[in-house]
Design a protein that fits this description.
six-stranded mixed sheet; Rossmann fold; five-stranded parallel sheet; about 425 residues; 13 strands; binds pyridoxal-5'-phosphate; alpha/beta
């Protein structure tokens, strides 16, 4: 399968090049040239597949031409070594729990898949010593670091702002050791991002070191997110019964819109989802686009659902491309909604007391949207994108109870913190990269 750029200046790019480059040279996002429809026989029997088997069928449609079958199977099976259960929350509302991976957030799926696929290309192309640079304000760093942990031939350097990341987040990427180095930058997240961007442009470094990024727009992180939409539907059919399911609505708490776009890919492959809802916090750029037909990015504002504090969603370009920029067609398939912090808190509280289900602030947007917008006869699934413990203070404040820290997090917290201290000045980072 070849990939083209949403800016249409680059096409015919191999999967390997698209994965290694991340962003196209014309600054567009890579898209597969075609989206294969899966056979009716697959959907007829979908309840009989395990998560891993089902994901392999989907992965084959995307990557089967470019990755040897046994290797692809291994990559998929290794990636999904945890459950993604669908849980009934109320009458017609279900939660797809995407937080059972190593760092308790949905980004584990894409990060684990990408690390293994990149490892495969590194090996098959005989590359050695590939350096992945990633700047993080918290969650991305932990998913990427854990995804790449132990992958041969690849070293990961996670840059994060000293003192500006919660203890629970920090321990998830500073205690790993092996091929993961945490770099504690005396500066802000923006400084970390600037150091990474400058390194990619520095000829001394790029001549000596093979650098790549594990950015969320990478096709190897983005496409695997379609796997679990199929699994959600299969579980729903098991619970509700094949004949009782008519209109399935999927609601996705959205920031950069990668997750929801992967869902739309699944729909194009034949998954019977009747429509999507993109749930936003107060950063409602997409909702405004739906209402006005005009896309107006603006600086993000901070909210309690901070993984969705995005003012210029990067995957919007992919949505436009999928619909040939047709606003009316986009509105037909995707609805939008936005919630304030107070509404999100009220959602967590209501769901906890009425339905006995604990939401994180992102999932709460999804739950609220289904409560508000689900129509008679529709069944709704929202994606619960992170474990509530990741937002411990906010959630405890709302429900007035303390939460127990899961063993997975405790294990990280017991590890020894090891970091490389770094100033925010580029020459220091350059000398680090030249000498690692
Ligand atoms: C990254 C993230 C989101 C937003 O996902 P996008 O693919 O960027 O839309 C939502 N919730 C959580 C918990 C996240 O970490």
């Amino acid at each position: 399968m070849k990939y083209y750029s949403t800016n249409k200046q680059e096409f015919g790019v191999s999967l390997c090049d698209a994965v290694i480059k991340g962003l196209a040279s014309d600054k567009g996002l890579f898209m597969p040239e075609s989206i294969k429809t899966l056979p009716a026989s697959f959907f007829d029997e979908i309840e009989n597949y395990s998560l891993q088997e089902m994901a392999f069928v989907v992965a084959n449609a995307f990557f089967g031409e470019d990755v040897a079958e046994d290797d692809l199977k291994q990559i998929v099976f290794d990636t999904l070594n945890f459950e993604i259960p669908l849980v009934r929350v109320s009458q017609d509302i279900y939660s797809l729990e995407l937080f059972h991976g190593p760092t308790l957030a949905f980004k584990d799926v894409g990060a684990r898949f990408m690390s293994r696929l990149l490892g495969y290309f590194v090996k098959s192309r005989g590359l050695s010593d590939v350096n992945v640079l990633v700047a993080t304000s918290g969650d991305t760093g932990s998913a990427v670091a854990n995804g790449f942990l132990g992958v041969e031939g690849i070293s990961v350097h996670v840059l994060y702002p000293k003192g500006k990341v919660s203890a629970i987040q920090e321990c998830q990427f500073t205690t790993l050791g092996k091929n993961i180095t945490a770099i504690e930058v005396d500066g802000t997240f923006d400084d970390c991002q600037r150091l990474v961007k400058t390194a990619f442009l520095d000829r001394d470094i790029t001549q000596k070191r093979f650098l790549t990024s594990a950015n969320s727009i990478n096709v190897a992180r983005f496409l695997p997110q379609s796997f679990y939409y199929f699994y959600a539907y299969a579980q729903l059919r098991k619970i509700a019964g094949k004949n009782n399911l008519h209109d399935v609505v999927v609601c996705v708490p959205s920031g950069n819109f990668g997750n929801i776009t992967a869902g739309i890919f699944a729909q194009k492959m034949g998954l019977p989802v009747s429509r999507f809802i993109a749930a936003n916090n107060r950063n409602d750029i997409f909702l405004q686009y739906l209402k006005t037909g005009e896309y107006r990015p603006r600086p993000s504002v901070s909210t309690i659902a901070n993984a969705m504090d995005v003012g210029d969603p990067s995957n919007f370009a992919r949505i436009l491309d999928l619909y040939q920029h047709n606003h009316a067609e986009i509105c037909k398939n995707i609805a939008g909604v936005s919630y304030s912090d107070d509404e999100i808190r009220a959602g967590i509280s209501e769901c906890f007391s009425a339905d006995n289900y604990l939401l994180d602030p992102h999932g709460a947007c999804g739950y609220l949207a289904l409560k508000e917008m689900l129509k008679e006869g529709e069944t709704g699934i929202f994606l619960e994108t992170a474990h509530p413990i990741k937002f411990k203070d906010t959630v405890e404040d709302v429900i007035r109870q303390s939460l127990e820290i899961p063993d997975k997090i405790k294990a990280f917290m017991n590890g020894k913190k090891q970091t490389v201290p770094m100033s925010k000045d580029f020459p220091d980072f350059k000398s680090y990269l030249m000498n690692v």
